[in-house]
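Q: Joint fold for the lines below.
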Amino acid sequence: AQTVTQSQPEMSVQEAETVTLSCTYDTSENNYYLFWYKQPPSRQMILVIRQEAYKQQNATENRFSVNFQKAAKSFSLKISDSQLGDTAMYFCAFMMPPGNQFYFGTGTSLTVIP
Amino acid sequence: DAGVIQSPRHEVTEMGQEVTLRCKPISGHDYLFWYRQTMMRGLELLIYFNNNVPIDDSGMPEDRFSAKMPNASFSTLKIQPSEPRDSAVYFCASSLGRPEPNEKLFFGSGTQLSVL
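A: Joint structure:
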């Protein structure tokens, strides 16, 4: 079975600072995808960034970037220049074809402090 | 497309009652997933369907839970009888199910279930 672990239940960061959220996963597969989803208080689930396991280059999306360490099975999310709108729950997720089932961690609640 | 549509958004019921949650996936999506979100366990995959067929229901907590997908545009998650520990947010999600670079999961807005 695939497992996703987020060891930081809560984090906070000052506005404009940088914060890193941790995620580790466990799988014996070689072909898979990793995601970070954001859930603001509205409860909506928003895709932040995705990474294909076969790509060595770390994905970036504006202020969001990942540090993907395949051998260590680690997939951390870095948020630069934190903004108040980044306050949300962040979920790390693992998806493996062909079934395409997504497995999520327990989430990290991030608060950006003005 | 309006996205994944779930109803109701909130449901309050009494212990022992039957609860039915509804979901309309995005048209053309081959996969449909039901998740349960709690503070303790995060997002748990309950069951998922491929082309209306249940593929993996190993996450369904017990026999009180059942899910159906009678056609490509509708799915239900039923709890009978409901218990207070079933209180959670239930999400439905759908995806294309193809190994494309942009494959991702589209979520509904969730149903907040409270069992008193």
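Q: Anything notable?
A: The CA atoms of residues 46 and 60 of chain B lie 5 Å apart. Chain B has no helices and eleven strands.
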